[in-house]
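Good morning C.,

I know you're traveling, so I'll keep this short. The sequence:
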Amino acid sequence: MKSKLFMLLSTVLMLAAACSPQKSDKAYTITGTAEGTQDGDTVFICEMQGYFEMIPVDTAIIKDGKFTFDGECEGAALRYLMPIHAGEPTTMAEFILEKGDIKANLIKGEGKSNIEGGPNSKLYEEFEEKCGEIGQQMNEPWQITEDSTKSEAEKHVAQEKLDSLNKVLVAYQKKFIIDHVPSACSDMLYAFCSFSFSKEDQEEILKLFGEKQPDFPVYKAIMAERKAQEATAIGHAYTDLKMDDPNGKAMKVSDYVGKNKYVLIDFWASWCGPCRAEMPTVVEAYTKYHDKGFEVVGVSLDNDKGAWVKAIADLQMPWPQMSDLKGWESEACAVYHVQAIPANVLIDEKGDIIAKDLRGEDLLNKMKELLP
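The tokens, ready to paste straight into the viewer:
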């Protein structure tokens, strides 16, 4: 019987790392062997998401005892090689995906595989080794803090030791990133470590990235997100949207802004449970304040028109609705930096954004304040 893992891996569409007939400056090649496999077996490159969920991003078939991947990557990324034999993974080996040649000798079971990468791989190994040493020093005091037989005084001393070692770890991470600018490894490590840094440290590192390595993917993504957030910040003018209503007629948000005292752009979808749970509150706000100059424009992130139209009726939403039926690829997501729904933006008569993400009582209280 095939395992659930094998069935999942076998049905996922592999999109990344397409082979190019002419190598670019972002090209990589991975060649290797996998102990415990045979010709015809599959090797996956996986990305870890969430709580250790492995998402396949490319696949290769073992032939003559070897496997090969060819593709392109921007910067450096932490990935995993997972060979499959008889429906089960034989091992899972961590490596740094980067441009250039990578050689892998994958050892079955718990044995340490040998993967020889490029300069970013070597930097990452150095970084991991030092972090591991500090982590080992943290084990004993951590165990004391978790030990119910230890006194409060002992736990207090252990916690102080933990806090001190954590400061050492964070200081090392920051210094390593800065010392190795410019490098794709520094860019990648910032994504891993930035949550531990103070706001001042984050800005210091990002300023250095902007000066020395502005073209790496993590930095570019952070800057793009900031730009999107600034464009939809409170106090900024709104950006118009044009899509079709449920009858297929084109409509725009600007059809309503300026003609009402306040317009709420409400981002939702028929498949979104929290959106459906929130909708009675939006209906209540609309019912109470529509005659006073409050309008709602629904922007759906649906793909299925039938489901969208049915949800409008089921949830008794009387306000105008629009959608391009592109789901998360909707223009609205990019324009208004929508990364989760429900979400909303409140616009005044002048066209300025005056509030965002008003949910539950916050929406009702805001409208009571604006339209008493």
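Safe travels,
E.
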